[in-house]
Amino acid sequence: MADPLDPRAWQVVEITSSETHPVRLAVLRADTPTKAVTFAEDDWLGAVHLGVCVDGELVATSTWIPRPMPPDPDPDPDGSIDAPAVQLRGMATMHHLQGSGIGAALIAAGCARAQIDGAAIVWANARDRALAFYEREGFEVVGDGFVDTTTQLPHHVVVRRL
Length: 162
Fold this sequence. Notes:
Blueprint: E1 10-15, H1 17-28, E2 48-54, E3 57-66, E4 85-93, H2 102-116, E5 121-127, H3 131-136, E6 140-147, E7 154-161
């Protein structure tokens, strides 16, 4: 059995949207009033679902959706808001492996894929308690915070230029 904390044991794979559901439920819906794990965009043309497997077990997931970044109330001096963009949704690493680097590996793989597909920006509606993770991964917080209507948790938009 491979050590799940050893990066050599991690395999980043493309998965189906339905394969993301158990991890989304366990991580993203554990502390929310809803147990819904599907996104309307899951089956959009160009949507990509990535996961990290350790010994054949899916331990992290992410969904990458070609979608323009929403307008930011702050001025956009470099005009990047109009650049081709991908929205990151459903980013989740099983609780016992959070902080291990698996999420960072998934972000790196997803950003590389987004760049190959022509995106210049990756953005997400990030939970406030995960902002430090996103900032470590090169994202910056933009705009004011908000409470997500599905999860009822505080969020901010985060952006990473590729």
